[in-house]
């Protein structure tokens, strides 16, 4: 078994080394690179692997222990604990209403950023907006059983976004909020791809810097074929799945 190379972490000067080491080890435990009951390498070996001091390794291990991910046995070593974790959130991609209802039912949202601002170029192009046009930008983290499972970033034209605030977005899906104001999603486009966790997203989702993430980008239109929302979701593959039925090709 070859653990993730954490030497890349040292280049992230804006995040303490011990937290970077913690994120990498946590990610390896979550991916079962270190299986439940398996001993972790000794502190000295981990320090050599990461290229950091034993004090840094010890701080990272203390965080793992506080979260209940490892168990220290005096004179024996440090072992990965067997933990129960929520099943991945699996949602259909054909039925928007059903998907949003299931997400709201099984998770809770926290708004971590909310502002009215100009949109980046790629978002403006979807709306055919000018450089000075304003948008409501909101970033939410959704949790399942207190574990962060996804980050959602949305851009909505200012005229629509002024009708509700961040407290509304923590209690319901944006789909349902817009429906209350008579705005319905008539159709849209969805692109599913991959992304690597940058330092900010890695910290928010408790994954290692550079960890692979599922990326879902959507553009929604109303009944008048006007774009009303740009949506971007980032989630670790272990916590979020998209499922799409396939046509019976034998007929």
Q: Are there runs of 5+ residues with pLDDT below 50, and where?
A: 1-11
Q: How many β-strand stretches?
A: 10
Give the CATH superfamily of the largest domain.
Answer: Chorismate lyase-like
User: What is the structural class?
Assistant: alpha+beta
Rounded to an integer in angstroms, the radius of gyration calculated over CA atoms is 21 Å
The backbone outline, from C-alpha atoms, is elongated
Total DSSP helices: 9
Query: CATH first level of the largest domain: which class?
Result: Alpha Beta
Oligomer: single chain
Please write the string of helix (H) and strand (E) elements.
HHHEEEHEHEEHHHEHEEE
**Within the largest sheet, what's the order of strands?**
4-5-6-9-8-7
CATH topology of the largest domain, by name, is Chorismate lyase
Explain the layout of strands and helices.
Elements: H1 17-30, H2 43-50, H3 54-66, E1 70-73, E2 77-80, E3 89-92, H4 96-106, E4 108-118, H5 121-127, E5 134-144, E6 147-157, H6 158-161, H7 166-171, H8 174-180, E7 187-196, H9 199-205, E8 212-221, E9 227-235, E10 240-243
Parallel strand pairs: 3-10
Antiparallel strand pairs: 1-2, 4-5, 5-6, 6-9, 7-8, 8-9
Helix pairs in contact: 1-3, 2-3
């Amino acid at each position: 078994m070859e653990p993730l190379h954490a030497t890349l972490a040292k280049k992230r000067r804006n995040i303490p080394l011990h937290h970077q080491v913690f994120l990498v080890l946590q990610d390896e435990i979550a991916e079962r690179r270190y299986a439940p009951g398996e001993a972790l390498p000794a502190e000295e070996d981990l320090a050599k692997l990461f290229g950091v001091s034993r004090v840094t390794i010890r701080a990272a291990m203390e965080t793992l222990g506080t979260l209940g991910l490892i168990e220290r046995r005096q004179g024996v070593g440090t072992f990965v604990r067997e933990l129960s974790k929520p099943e991945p959130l699996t949602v259909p991609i054909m039925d928007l209403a059903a998907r949003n209802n299931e997400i709201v039912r099984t998770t809770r949202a926290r708004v971590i950023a909310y502002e009215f601002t100009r949109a980046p170029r790629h978002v403006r192009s979807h709306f055919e907006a000018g450089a000075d046009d304003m948008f409501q930008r909101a970033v939410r983290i959704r949790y399942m059983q207190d574990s962060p499972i996804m980050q959602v970033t949305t851009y909505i034209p200012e005229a629509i976004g002024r009708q509700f605030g961040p407290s509304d977005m923590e209690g319901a899906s944006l789909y349902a909020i817009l429906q209350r104001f008579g705005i319905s999603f008539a159709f849209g486009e969805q692109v599913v791809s991959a992304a690597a966790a940058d330092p900010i997203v890695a910290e928010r989702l408790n994954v290692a810097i550079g960890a692979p993430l599922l990326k879902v980008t959507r553009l929604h239109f109303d009944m008048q074929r006007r774009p009303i929302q740009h949506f971007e979701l980032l989630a670790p593959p272990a916590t979020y799945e998209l499922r799409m039925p396939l046509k019976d090709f034998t007929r």
